[in-house]
Amino acid sequence: VYVMPNSFGPLKGPFVKKIAYSALSKCKIISSRETLSQKTIEEQLGLEIENYPDLAFELPKAMLDKNSVFEKYYLPNNRKLVAITMRPYRFPRSDNPELAYITFKNEMSFFIEWLYNRGYMPVIVEHTLAVNTHENDGDCIRDVISKIDKEQYRFISDLKYDCQDLKCIYSYCQYIVGTRFHSLIFAFGSNVPGIAISYTGNKAIGIMHDMGLDDYVVDISEVTAQLLEEKFNRLVRNEDIVKEKIVHYRNEALERRKMLIKACSK
Fold it and tell me: Measured between alpha carbons, how far is 254 from 55 in angstroms, rounded to an integer?
């Protein structure tokens, strides 16, 4: 068993560490995709593992016809496009999870309206489509856009799109605010800067930390339109610096990917 770059932890609850150790210690290769997970496995399980960036950074993107995509979704050429991904979430740490979820959706709708009023075009992408309501992004998105004038956003949803198609679509945007972290990784793969909304585990916090982008992460339980506006304004002001960090990380990711291939080939 070869565990490709993934995130681990936090390891909580009865017997979790024992079960994790029992499984992972038998693997030929275990690799993390960010240093927080690497530290978790080494400190909590005593297993030494290597860290390699998420393989999706170098996923090839589809060659969709840009004009056709812009025509299909009525994307404007006179506004900068801001990709946005959202997902359902149960808010397990909240005293009132149902209210917390409603608040999150309301704040996202306020932020989307703010983006439009500032001259941007919010492009909401249904990144994950699933039968399970908890995993289907459309359920959250439709609640959010029901509160917004249809002229103030564009909605991209297509069952036929695969990961390479989505990566191509994100590349057409100038910025991204992503809850689905692979939407950010796809965007970063085209040097599109963005803000991560972190909802569980180490992946968003860990990868953004490794990229030197800690200032552009918001915990989902702390999301407010005002906080996202502040983060977005900072992103725009520091756009060139952020892009430099993305390019630097991607170059490192390419070299680390080669090292992973060599490790597996042994």
Answer: 9
- Torsional class of 123: left (φ above 0), alpha (ψ -120 to 50), beta (otherwise): beta
H or E element in which residue 216 lies:
none
Closest CA to 45 of 55, 32, 57: 32
Q: Give the pLDDT band (50/70/90) at residue 171.
A: very high
Q: What is the mean pLDDT of the segment spanning 11-24? A: 93
Whether the pLDDT of residue 209 is over 90: the answer is yes
DSSP state of 74: T
Tokens 């509160």, located at residue: 147
- List, in sequence order, every beta strand (DSSP E) within the chain: 2-6, 29-32, 50-51, 80-85, 120-125, 154-156, 175-178, 194-198, 217-219
